[in-house]
Amino acid sequence: MYPPGDAHRGGGHPHPALPQRTPGAADADDDEHLYYPQPEKWRGDGNPRLQFRPRRGGHRQLSLRQLYTPGDRASFTANAAHWGGPPAFSRVTLRMIPNDTARVAALRAGDVDAIDNVPTRDVAQLRAVPGITVQSRVGQRLIYLYPDVGREISPHVTDLAGRPIPNPLRDVRVRRALSMAINREGISRQLMEGFSVPAGQLMPEGALGFDADIRPERYDPVAAKRLMTEAGYPDGFALTLHGPNDRYVNDEGIAQALAQMWARIGVWVNVATMPSTMFFARTPRDENSMALTGWSSSTGEADTSLINMVATPMPERGWGTIVRPSHYSNPETDDLLLRALSTLEPEARGALYRQIIRLGVQRDLAVIPIHHQVNIWATRANVRYAPRIWETTRAMEFSPAP
Length: 402
Description:
There is one protein chain. The protein is an alpha+beta fold. The chain folds into 2 domains: 136 residues, Periplasmic binding protein-like II (D-Maltodextrin-Binding Protein, domain 2), CATH 3.40.190; 236 residues, Roll (Dipeptide-binding Protein, domain 3), CATH 3.10.105. It is 26% helix and 22% strand. It contains 12 helices and 16 strands. The radius of gyration is 23 Å and the shape is globular.
């Protein structure tokens, strides 16, 4: 018998990541999981501003005086009856300030006590402001490219005269050449101002699935040009690189930098960046030949990254249902992934993840990793914050400064 109100799940095979994939179970105290959209029929007095219903036992509950203003703010009061004791602050207001300049200005003016997603260009200035502390930590967000490796004719790949050609991205030598032509250290140093870690795999150091033996692809445009010739493209070809211009740190700048780097090996690139809502609508329609995007695992290990970036799309298994990145399909990596997803022992599961990444990413370049973003927060002197590998910001992780 289970207590009333408890939730229970069953299944026919082991599911080691079930706690992380169950909302509210892995981080039962997280603001993100304690409040969730409330169906219309549950809204009090027909008030469309009441969007959330607090879960039992959470650290915070919505203030009844000032609930939720869509696109602006949500106010919370502490739950004094929480099993772990009341949180450090009696009241917290979360403000949504999507504009970078306005967000930084609000911190400097004292209108807010802390901000996340600090623009890299503002870090040095904020560090020089008395009473403001900037903290950072490498995150799980991988910025990467997905090439169309499956279709014989890809919609945005042509010869230099604009005529359709058999898809060169199906040749791993071409994909390797494109990867070798990327100066990841230069992107980190010049575009990201040091706030990225060049990547050759899916997970950052410390996450389950990270492989210390996999290094980022070496930057070697001369060798890349030789590979292009060896693959039958001594004069190169043309392609369109699609990507968002408002979703990831310096996303449009990265796309423009890639175009310049690839031009050196004869690949002429039309950069087509757009608002993220438009970009992500293109993905399920298979409208890209090469795209710049990002992914962050929701479990802290490589499972969701592999399911959505390397696995053969299989809706019946829940594989590739969010994105269909590259049309890559490999029965060997699929079989290894099935084993990993039902392996309870973390070390054995991590070894399987690493094997899949060595085959699907390092060898076959189903996706081309660029870097992991560094998460950046800034706080005023009255609060402290412990930076996380996750880029989400949760109120209970703040504490009063001594």
